[in-house]
User: What shape does this take?
Amino acid sequence: MKSSTSIRRKVCVIGLDGVGLRNLRNMLGVLPLNGINRVVSKGFVSSFISLPPYTPCAWTSIFTGVNPGKHGIYGFYKVSRNGRITVNVSTSYDVKYPRIFEILGMSGLKSVVINVPLVYPVHELVSLKNLVVVSDWASPKQFIYPKQDEDRYREYLVEPPHKWASAVNVNSYVKAVEAFLEKRIDLYYELLEKENYNLFIIVFSELDWLMHRIPDIVMGKQMNLVYKVLALIDKFIGRVCEVCDLIVLVSDHGFTISRLFIGVNSILARNGLMMSSYKLNIDKLFHRQQPKKCDVGGKQGFNYITSRIIRNLFEVISVVTRKIVSSQALNKLEAIVPISTEIDYSSSKAIMLEPANWGIYVKEGYVDLVKKLFSNNRFVKKVLHREELFWGPHTQEAPDLILVPRDHVFFDARIHAEPMYLDYVSEHEPHAMIAFYGDYVLPATSMDNPINVSIYDLVPTILAYIGLPIPRDSDGKPRIEVFNVGFYNKKYDYLEKFKMLRKIKQLKIGKGGKVKS
Ligand SMILES: [Zn+2]
Assistant: This one.
């Protein structure tokens, strides 16, 4: 092992959120993308399976090299069950295994980390002094760490346009995403060229947002709508190829078209397993009636109208609650009257929280019943117990059951969704992509046998390439077959050190306990 030279190798990981190998080939087929083409055609490229194909857990698996049973992330929400189900938002503290940039940091090597999920709050990251961090789109606030960098680059910290679902007009949404990336990419160039690092990680979420909003892109149509964003990313990749020794292009899942939807929570509700309650939204009521309040003059007038409406409403609500009304009726009702339906966690026996992680949380004693309910659904390929998919100390925090949908089938977690309906929507699917390009990388075409790369291989492969020991209990392995050079193959217990550093960190801050955002 030639340590002194290899320790200075620069690695760049470029994440393309949602771009599976098939999606990428679609893009390359219709658009001139020289940077990406260079990586894919001259390097090693492979597809791999990402289960469940969901952004927060998949990126955390990629950057830890372990499965969610070891890192503890199953979605944007964190569920705890002490007799009843409680739901919190996942934070950086909930990642229970060191990520590659923390592993490098523990060894004194520096990383730049851009738009990686679950880096907020930043002070919970280990080896922070070796990190430059730009917040991800889901962060409660946009930030750059350290503070002096935030001061320097503040103008680039525009809000991410990730709410693709609420964008009314496709063209104006595309424009908003383009404007966001055009602004941000200057920051990425600055950090790429000016910072000192061994590892540069950047995740681009823009293509995920656009594929969600415009299903045709997934079909290889309307590619002009994605061209500008792709061209910006492609040019950046071209520059990265000049600056770094090893370039890794990776995605967390692919995209496909779903045509049939299963209303998981509505099925659970119809079987008495999920309870919901109806809440009168007084704020909304007040807001709606404001003009009338002015007309009548003074608060009294408002109160009079309000009380009449509330009385009428309660009549409606009592009718609604007496039976499960048709979902369409209730959807309409919710649009007109200020009531909202909420999941009643304390009395529910089973719920799906995030459809994209395919999981159902089930109360003790009801697992067999729920499993049977969905095993009989011909659009569900398999119903897995969490232990069939995850292993490690945090397996107990996983949803109890994982529904594997058939191709082009997806889930709807809305309480009043139809149990089954047809639609044309783009959704995540498990075929992700990884490509290596750079010094010592063998092109895939030169290999006799295909290599089955796993989602966990990125961490050990990069560590071995840089010349650091690989994690003792990694779920992946260094893919030395991809390189024509000898690799470092010692192992080290980073997890133990990580736990210790976190403990020290908390004693220092004087919190002594768990931090919630
Ligand atoms: Zn994603």
In short: The chain has 19 helices and 21 strands.
